[in-house]
């Protein structure tokens, strides 16, 4: 066993234990360079046969509007031709969903064919990147929440993200600044002893 880095290990465990999601985000966001550095760090994710069955897609500015428009189109068709006030309002609300954060990071599973690595293992790796990236962003003081919903299965949304036929969205990390009014520490307590089975 390598000599443990005591301080670093404590810090990492504390970061994992205190991570929480932030639903309300400010317009502050990490730069492309900062994201590149963190994604580089996430390449350490466990990856059977090193298939790298993942990639990320970042959306800022108007790209988020194109994403929202694709969702509204999927649900309501040609939004411009809607006439019922309720439908117009609901379509606009739906289209505005991706605007809840200044930066969205799509987590993409890139399916690879391999005789000994089934798809679920590849999805586990891609999801692992999402979790590592969430933690890394949280550690750097950014607010993050992972959202999915039915959007992940919409062809128009896949098109906006430029997905290939072997690719599938596992959701988005909504990333932004932490609103000072929502800077409370994690309060959801889960009893881990209920989740551990000890075989001897
Ligand atoms: C793959 C994945 C997809 C998720 N999708 C949603 C979602 O669409 N909407 C939502 O409210 N929470 C979603 N969540 C849960 C939130 O990200 C978050 O974990 C939850 O609100 C609990 O908050 P906490 O992370 O502070 O414990 C998802 C989590 C994961 C891992």
From TrEMBL:
Keyword list, A-Z: Flavoprotein, FMN, NAD, NADP, Oxidoreductase
Which cofactors does it use?
A: FMN
Taxonomically, which superkingdom? Bacteria
One Pfam family cited in the UniProt record for this chain: Nitroreductase
Domain (Nitroreductase) spans: 16-176
CDD domains from the entry?
YdjA-like (cd02135)
Note on cofactor = Binds 1 FMN per subunit.
Residues where FMN binds: 19-21, 48, 146-148
Task: Give EC number(s), comma-separated.
Answer: 1.-.-.-
Any one Gene Ontology molecular-function term assigned to this protein's record? oxidoreductase activity
Recorded hits in InterPro entries, A to Z, give: NAD(P)H_nitroreductase (IPR052530), Nitroreductase (IPR029479), Nitroreductase-like (IPR000415), YdjA-like (IPR026021)
Q: Which PANTHER family match?
A: NAD(P)H NITROREDUCTASE YDJA-RELATED (PTHR43821:SF1)
Q: Which family does it belong to?
A: Belongs to the nitroreductase family.
Q: What is this protein called?
A: Putative NAD(P)H nitroreductase
Tell me the organism. Hoyosella rhizosphaerae
The record lists the lineage as: Bacteria, Bacillati, Actinomycetota, Actinomycetes, Mycobacteriales
